[in-house]
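Provenance and format

Records in this collection were gathered into a single text stream. Each protein contributes a sequence line and a token line. The two records reproduced below are adjacent in the stream.
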Amino acid sequence: MDKINVLVVSEEGDNTTDTVLKWIKYYGGNFLRLNNTSKLYLDHVHLGNEGEDVTFYYEEKAYRLSDFTAYWYRRGRLNFTYPKTPEFQNQKLQKEVSNSLDREYTYINNYIYNYFEKKKDIPTIGSIYDNQTNKVTNLLKARNVGLKIPETIITSSKEHLLEFKNKTQKVLIKPIYQAGFLYEDENTKTSGLSVLLGENEINGLPDKFMPTLVQGYVEKLYELRIFYLNGQCFSSVIFSQWDEQTKVDFRNYNWEKPNRTPPYLLPKNISAKIKTLMDELDMNSGSIDIIVTPDNEYVFLEVNPVGLFWQVSYPCNYYLEKRIAEYLCNK
């Protein structure tokens, strides 16, 4: 068998990456893990009629992209260090030169990501561009493949918000951006989670405010977290509605009394729709949230391309980290 060399792009301290790398090592593979804090130096890019390659240095050792046999984008980014911008006395010229070089570096970085993420002849999982996925667009695409979605508006008007609440009875707000606003110090903490919006909160709003994503609250029988990997769905049911702390958003974890999360067998028609959706989104992995209503309807909420999946892997004995390593090692 040819030598296995896996390039992994991740974040420092990501335990999921640690576990996958242990499995890669178990299968006899080598790997290079590059975190967002890893300093890289570009040596050169070669494009020719017979092929292409990129050579870079990491910790004073040269690597060629063509030497890698698989690629996994988990999280983070490639952190290339480029020469400092030349200094000019003319500040306007200084700014223009800096902006121009930043654009040059951005296009070089984009090419390097595309080198792997568009390759079809080696195993690849994930893409940095998936991080730019749009919740609103994804809702529409989910609806178009036949999945139900919550009633949703984006509004900056208290009048429209009150009309929507009168129509749906209960409403919640959530960030449009994937992670939401995360901040913490000794006095303030924000979570970026979904929150029910009561009438008092709405009445306290100004007539106009920042555009906000609002959804009609979907009553749940239970919730599903589904990890999707190369056409397969690995599903876990989450009994989050039995706990007031997790009822609105299960990510508001109750560590003292965790939700039960046993394995779940998805109906074949729902699995097929999810596969169609992920093909439409050009994603081969991601964590999907779905609510199952008391009427047994499946309501799609969102897909996170780099979401946590240990709460699906471990309680359900799916060994997802092992499956990822097997795919990357062609096992």
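Adjacent record:
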Amino acid sequence: MTNPLVPTHWELTVTAIGLLLVVLAIATVVSLARNRNYTPVQRLLWLLVIIFAPIVGSVLWLLVGRRTGTQRHNATA
């Protein structure tokens, strides 16, 4: 008989994955907030993508959003 107060391995795994996703979303929002290469409307759109599709939105921002903003900034300098 197992103790219902002690989490099982799958519960710990799901909790760890959930915490990693929350940390990823928070890091993405912080990165978005620090990026000054976008207009407020563009930042709002990115934020909505990150909130409503946390995994896909975060990955898209980290792969495309940051680079696009950096390239745009370097092109004007």
